[in-house]
Amino acid sequence: MKRLWAALFLSVLSVAAASAHEHTQDVREFGAKGDGAADDTGAITAAIAAASGSGGGVLYFPPGTYLISSQISGVSNLEIACNNATITTNVVIPRAFFYFTNTSNTYVHGCKFDQAQPRLPVYADATQALVGVALLFDPGSSNIRIVGNAFSNLYTNALVFYHSSGSVEVAGNTFTSPQANQNILLEHVHTVTFGGRFDAHGNTFANAPPSAQNMNAGCIFFGNTVGSVNVSSNSFDYCGRSYVPSGFHPVATVDFYTSHENVTLNGNIATNNMWEFTRLSSAWPVEVAGNVLTRGPGASTAQFISVESTAKNLGLSRAGSQSIDIHDNTLEDDYTNGASIGIAAGSYDYATPIQNLRIHHNSLIGFGRGVMVGGVMNGVSIDHNQLTGPNANIIMVTFDNHAGPFTELHGVTEAQSGISGVSITDNYQSVMGSSDPIQVNLQYVPPYTGTVGSVAIEGNVVTSALPSVAAGIFARGPVPGPAAGQVIVRNNMVNNFAYSFYLQGWDRATVAGNDTWGISGQDLYQDTINTLKTIP
Length: 536
What we know:
By secondary structure, the chain is mostly beta strands. Helix content is 6%, strand content 49%. It folds into three domains: 50 residues, no CATH class; 201 residues; 236 residues.
């Protein structure tokens, strides 16, 4: 009986192997030369038609360089397998090398896609938004794997996913862009309206140094995703594109633009960022952890990690930012003018406050403003971070969102909004300059009319390398309006400042158990405090 089962098992394997072999279409067998000179478009198209006629299968490229002269369309339910094969062109191909429609269970691996052309003369948004893309997946595509490929010298994107679903894996690929193409390149990976799980891991993005901060390639772009997105263990170099000078389409290295859920951005290494490393727009829940980030030469001073609580008037399926956990990242900057920002969060609509944001256990080196949170908020914790290096290294909480006026178009007015549950605890700051290292500043003109709750500043160590004319801890309520809210300043260590604590415009203030030394002026300056309690 055992011999019978063994024979049956071997027979099944043999049939499966034969079936797989029958469904493998070698492009050479359809007339492809693979010599880099002959046009292989027709042969590849014929091989795809043969595979499609048998219900799908494997499109196989043996070693060689395969030249195509136009987009290859109608690709569906196909595996593309390359063995040391390059797919290239000698013309500018509108849209894509391969155009997938209504495809499922697609697997592309081991291929090199190379545009191998001089750059387009001018970037024109409307007419050249999609030119020279390697792989384009149109609506209806699902369950896609892009693994172990190389994409180089492409014009606008390497991979584009429109309205895809199911699962998408982009893993172990290499993406490169020369400087000549970067004034027209959008992003290497571009995804719009995705539903399912998107997983990008173990990829290498290596762009040439750009000629300017607005002439550079973004690396991964997401627009409106439902499901989950994981971007982990990737390597990025010279990614991101700024607004200025006179730039179009600012794009972060990894950009989550408009409405996302279940995002993890972990364990990436991003060197020479030219704008933001990530923009998290109306995203929750989110974890950003264990990333190592540095700024590029001549780059924008914009924040490395940006949380944006987008206004509801954009008509998004999800608006606001909540349940954001940013931890154990290392951010390093070399700007010494105080303008650079490490981590920033801002809200833009009274109806969409920042909620449940925690920024903790990060190392920020050399920033003017290490952490900055602005707008209306409910539940913000900035704790156990280390801010060092030759700069101001400020932690700032403010009502001003630094991005323009708030909107109140959705039934929530300024008077109905609130700022509450803010804690700045157990941070270490070694600073240089004349700025206050910890700043809570709710001053605004006209005065903020919403509810101000509690702010706790506890257990921080703040020290200045040189005698400073600033205060170690500065906390101002909603002046010039009436005093409001409560501030607690407790168990902090403050060294080498003009003032230890500068408090103004609070209904209640508690100062207790702090240790201060090297203070050249007053230990505590207070103004317009309705009830002040001091405990040694």
